[in-house]
Amino acid sequence: MKLTILFGGASFEHEISIVSAITLKGKLSGFDLSFIFCDQDHTFYLIELAKMKATTFSKGEYKKMHKLSISKGGFTEKSMFSSKEHTGVFLNLIHGADGEDGSIAALFDFYAIKYIGPRIDASVFSYDKRYTKWLCNARGIKSLKHEELSSIEHDNIKIPYPVIIKPARLGSSIGVSIVKEEGELDYGLDSAFEFDSSVIVEPFLEGVKEYNLAGFMANGEIHFSIVEEPHKEEFLDFEKKYMDFSRSERALKADISDELESKLKKNFVKVYKNLFEGALIRCDFFVVDGEVYLNEINPIPGSMANYLFEDFKVSIELLANSLPHTKRAKVNYDYIHSISKAKGK
Amino acid sequence: MKLTILFGGASFEHEISIVSAITLKGKLSGFDLSFIFCDQDHTFYLIELAKMKATTFSKGEYKKMHKLSISKGGFTEKSMFSSKEHTGVFLNLIHGADGEDGSIAALFDFYAIKYIGPRIDASVFSYDKRYTKWLCNARGIKSLKHEELSSIEHDNIKIPYPVIIKPARLGSSIGVSIVKEEGELDYGLDSAFEFDSSVIVEPFLEGVKEYNLAGFMANGEIHFSIVEEPHKEEFLDFEKKYMDFSRSERALKADISDELESKLKKNFVKVYKNLFEGALIRCDFFVVDGEVYLNEINPIPGSMANYLFEDFKVSIELLANSLPHTKRAKVNYDYIHSISKAKGK
């Protein structure tokens, strides 16, 4: 099948998007793949398949490749005397800003481009951790208690130490730190505020059980991945996550009871349904005293969480053939006509 | 001052956006105004000032005008041998879909265009009435109890009659009906489901006191309009609202106590702050037993609620000079460099 992967973006996660894209090139062999790179200035480039390696980007070689502009149904490559259309199904693989904040979703919707990825609403509720809490409250999903801080007033923390501090709108552990006592607080807050003007504080649960579950909706039903218990150190810092984004080997199924697996799936459905249609997402859960808590929603997981799926290629194909349609309003001029008529014009 | 107004859109509120734009042409005389029309196919046209009248659009005459494409910092007009840039500050005046659902916000942010209007997050929380309820819950703002229905299961209503039925994602009273008894329910639901797959049901409070308050943030403080008690029949249907969108005469200040005015303003601030920066919004409140309830947020009110402001031109100028900056992430290739180095490449 034909699939175009969009990656890069003006995001702190720009590099891991490149790594993700390179990983998918390997995982989706046999597909008719194209790659479109969005650089930090929001210029789009068509990347030759043979050039899909990290140095093409780090050395700026991509700038010699064909520029594209977004257009109805896809992207257009204009040369002196002709223009070539790139259409079909796209996969939004821009992690973080641009890709996960709703921008690419809005662009794709506006230009009627078919894509795998979260829609605008879904992006807002997964990108900003504060709004993920609102989603949890509204849908009866448990999540850890939290406090929100803005850069102006950042001292009174009521949650007892240790706490984990996160920029509200970044993924991949960027700017995240664990603060074990008051003396470390300022440093932790500074690290987070470097990346965002809003920060959330949660209790840090040492040794908590963590489980990841991915899935997507196709043909009216949710297709789940296996459940993984991720190997972890205290938490993954950016460098480790970076390596994590290039994962391509099948993960091991977590050794959990059917009851817990079913609880995790129920929570996944509560998150997903009527919001994330069109996307393959990974939910990261905590389990405390047998209760499932949502930690984070990854609406564009690193390398699409390929390592969690029994048959990743079939999964992507299923999803690509079951994308939601956005019904565009039909415009008419009934009222203007009737008013013009009343005025005798 | 120079200001470009974007209007139209592929929306059920396409016509009222045209009316809004024509009204603003009159209200912002003295400004260096331009008008860009977005038609239902999402093609942009530069409309000559003299042609800013309803029939230009209803008769399709706009199609003869210059086409524009969106580009960094604004719009570009390409002719055979040259291209002309349209930059400066834009005002997003597309009501409903496209304008209020986050699409135009995302486009403008992506292309680094300065604009008056709600940002992506703010759009999501005002466009979908279900998410407005989540906002209210999270921020301690009272709102009427409600039920959500999806097109599949639409019979069990627990709220006692009379109720008001609204499509979740439309403004301007489109698809809204008041249902006084069970016998009218199916018709009310059908009307709403014609426009949206999600519908909300609220109690209909006959004769409830309603107050509208608009405002915006500039130079770090909120600038409020007067409070108006809108004249109303049971509720405004689309045709009446349509006329309402061309309002240009100063409204009368509602005869209310300082205490109530201050309560309304406090609620406005709870809605606005750290979400609607960059936009001039109108909040419609109900008052029941002295308590303020948020009914609706209009993030792009009809004709920008010009009739509520003491000096509308000064207000728009203040806002245009105080737009929020989106800090774009600086991309670097530190990790790729360090990994390449470690590999000896």
Low-confidence stretches of chain A: none
Neighbour order of strands in the largest sheet of chain A: 6-5-4-3-2-1-7-8
Query: Helix and strand succession of chain A?
Result: EHEEHEEEEHEHHEEEHEEEHHEEHH
Number of strands of chain A: 16
- The overall average pLDDT of chain A, rounded, is 92
| Assembly annotation | homodimer
| Largest interface in this structure | A-B, 60 and 59 residues
Q: What portion of residues of chain A belong to β-strands?
A: 25-35%
Write down the Rg of chain A.
22 Å
Please describe the biggest sheet of chain A, giving its number of strands, its sense, and whether it closes into a barrel: 8 strands, mixed
End-to-end Cα distance of chain A, whole Å, is 55 Å
Q: What is the count of helical runs of chain A?
A: 10
Please give the share of residues in helix of chain A: 25-40%
Shape-level CATH architecture of the largest domain in chain A: 2-Layer Sandwich
Shape of chain A: globular
CATH superfamily of the largest domain in chain A: ATP-grasp fold, B domain
Structurally, how many domains make up the residues of chain A? Answer: 3
